Amino acid sequence: MTIDEAQSVLFDLPSFADTGALAYKPGLERMKSLMEAMHRPDRAFPSILIAGTNGKGSTASILASITTAAGKKTGLHTSPHLAFIGERMRINGVPACPEWIARNVERFARSINEIGASFFEATTALSLLYFAEKNVDLAVVEVGLGGRLDATNILNPILSVITGIALDHTEILGETLPELATEKAGIVKPDTPFLTGAVQPEVLSVFRKIAANNRSTYHVLKDQTSLVNHEDSSFTLQTPERTYPSLRLDLKGDHQKRNAALAIRAAEICAIHSGAGESSIRDGLGNVVGLSGLRGRLERIHADPLILVDVAHNAEAVEVTLAAARTAFGGVSHVYIGLLKDKDAGEIARILSDVPVVVSTVRISSDRGMDASELASLFRSVGLHVEDENIVVVSAIDRFLKTSRTNEALLVMGSHVVAADALVWSDARTSETRTNLVP
Questions:
Q1: DSSP for 223-280?
Q2: Which of 2, 183, 281, 346 is the most buried (most CB within 10 A)?
Q3: CATH of domain 299-437
């Protein structure tokens, strides 16, 4: 089986990314069956589960970077992937190779289909198998949707982390913050520590009760740490363990510093497994992209004119990303954005209307994609300047390069599909440049 054939097998499975709630298969019965078919790889290594509405991918990547910097062989499972399915299963920042994926999809295709697994369940199972076969010292695993019934919850982690809670996927997880908090806290396991970056009193109250019911040591980041920003973009973090002066993070934005604080505290709580000390924390924070393979977080894909890419796809994430772009780069003048139907487009429109940007809406070729013309109409109704609609990211970026004026900057954001298109454009351009440099 080739990698293309393997991907066809996987992409033919029900996928939330394509059809949303229709493909959502809650419950762990199928994952248990997959793990049995694969000889229980989920029991082969210690793991940390990271859930939350926003920041879970970045937090997971920062934590993985710290443990890799400490000399640990670190597995990192995140979703969705951007350009290549192997990005979902990385070890020390390197994606699983196509040959391994093809070989093991062929090996377990019958089991996957007989069990009736979804795309997410199958790829999560493959990640755990990969980590087991490669004998990782620790796996950092980002939860997919919710927590309690998510496929990743097959694991029995040494630490459960919830970054924070905001209203998202309300049609599945609940319409109030306490309801969402209850679902996400389903990853909390008996007699294991629980760490959260949440701040809302009603959320923390839910977490406190769940921690008590599980006899879990309960850690609230805001109560245990103090973070001070410095003018040179560094920051000092004080934790119950020590003070870390003048830390530098290679991700932009104050929200990423908060994610880093959460990752550092997680590394401290699990120090026996993470191997984290001050040196590895500094090295890990300074090279998150290289050591974890994280992409699409205010990633600069072109310098002049400036073009940034971010996977922000709900109101809270859009707001912090725009603020980070202002702080780190002086802001942007143009935004290309495509959203899925389940996002709060009205609130995102309000946020965008507060900044001086020209907006274009991106066509998303998925049943879950919001119609780009309808999104453009909504943006115009709140006074936004909509330059174009139904754009295709790659050709629109090429056009921006030719027509942009001095000091204009572009941010491509929204659905992971939108960010992926921009990153594929960038990678192709980089590859082309390298080829042209070969004598």
A1: HH-EEEE-TTS-EEEE-SS-EEEEE--SS-SHHHHHHHHHHHHHHHHTHHHH---HHH
A2: 281
A3: 3.90.190.20
